[in-house]
Amino acid sequence: MVHSLTSGAARALASFVHGLGALALPTDCLVCAETLERPLEGPICAPCLSALPRVEAPCCSRCGLPYPAGVAPGLCGDCREPSRPFRRARALTVYEGPVRLCLHALKFRGRRRVASLLGRMAAERWMGSGELEPGAAVVPVPLSRKRRRERGYNQAELVARPVARIARLPLLTGALVKPAERPPQSGLSAAARRRNARAAYQARLPARFEGAHLLLVDDVFTTGATVEAASAALLGAGAASVDVLTLSRVPRAVL
What we know:
This protein is α/β, with parallel strands linked by helices.
């Protein structure tokens, strides 16, 4: 009887708290625009969240590039080259349709809670499965000072916070920097992205993380130019190896 009363009280409290959340937070789902029943749980309703296209097998065993159904697993063309500096990369979703809408809202409309919701899901999916090694610390891909000042936040850092919390690892926000502004990567070809990202990042690791494995976090993996340049900087600063976790992966057909 006591347990029943306690459970009932807990449900009533949860309902009350979510009611307050509905008053304080945007209450429409980012994807379907229907009213959120539980807005404190995030800006995407449960049906839309479960329907987001996930990266599933088959995919590249190294960079996580989604393959069409029926393609044999193995390395993609880019990953057959030995020059990719990261050990392994994985993403939660495929960058299409509703995922693109959500990540644009995160980057350009200030919808920061997209990062915490999807960041938590990405960490639980890939670190829980053992595909990615958490290592010693989580490092977000940085923005330049100018871009961060204009946006007001770094979306990769927002994603990295729940990842670090779930992995119970320190978040190294100052270990990797982007000292100069570069043209945006969007709209550039794969080759131009690599030229644009080359030597764009500088890293300086605290002594206790030299020789350690690190987890690099960003919002989207497109060609890999950004995470390659960031991984190379971390390796040059003394990291032993780098894994990459992103919210989304752009399929080859979109590049």
